[in-house]
Amino acid sequence: MKDEHIELFIESVVSVFGTMLGCEVKRKEPYLKDGSQATCEVSGVISLSGKAKGTVVLSLEREVALCATEALLMQRPDGINADVTDAIGELTNMIAGSAKAKLEEYELSVGLPNVVTGSGHCINFPTESPPVCIPFECEWGTVVVEVGLVVDPPQGTESQAV
Amino acid sequence: MKDEHIELFIESVVSVFGTMLGCEVKRKEPYLKDGSQATCEVSGVISLSGKAKGTVVLSLEREVALCATEALLMQRPDGINADVTDAIGELTNMIAGSAKAKLEEYELSVGLPNVVTGSGHCINFPTESPPVCIPFECEWGTVVVEVGLVVDPPQGTESQAV
What we know:
Two copies of one chain form a homodimer.
Chain A (H helix, E strand, L loop, with lengths): L2 H19 L4 E2 L3 E2 L9 E8 L2 E9 L1 H12 L8 H21 L6 E2 L3 E4 L4 E3 L7 E7 L2 E11 L11
Antiparallel strand pairs in A: 1-8, 2-8, 3-4, 3-5, 3-6, 4-9, 8-9
Helix pairs in contact in A: 1-3, 2-3
């Protein structure tokens, strides 16, 4: 991961949380993920592919997931239900989409978001694509964005539609 | 999900487990996933995008994940470690790649696999892409493949690299 890519994802998170949720997030220091760290209770996972391949994970504490859904739908969900997983999937999609727009040279397409729930789950990236974790704090709690991006060699065809 | 697509994924699982792991799997009856069902302890997740978009999840009981890794690497792993997550990611990649080759008309590209670990995790698909779950039994235990695939309208451009 290049430093400028990390900055792009930070800008995307700040902008999507500010614009869509009216929520100010403060970035903390990014770090490299060691496989054993569990992520938060609710994680949106989305894939990027094109001239680079990668994954963006938006991992939220339970309370952040509930408050973010409430801000989007104007109604407090009863618990972690389909409204929450769809809302967090859509947030992940917006963050990945916003970063994708700034990474034009890789001609990225964004997959469908899946949302993993359950306390203590851990999302492992392939060894060749170690993720950078970017933590944020907001009034609702902690948000961590994990990004792993691998830029293919120019002649690589594996990531192209064939 | 069309019935013929479900058949393609069944063929892919049978063929990859047979060829790569020397393990015969027996298919059980597919069912639609209701969001509340937890998946097994180790799940490989991979994204498909192109003229259709979707996700393939290969969910394995702990013992199946350990035995499959042992069959691939010729060495028994001590527990769910990076060898196991890389091996299960690669298996998921092979199953998705094998199905992709048979779905030429959608010009699919396959993303990088991520592997979710932790008992009781649940992988939620977007509401517009409800997954079909295909359970299999093998000598090591239970394997479930979950597939959600959304075919875009012909004029859709969202899934194209732009």
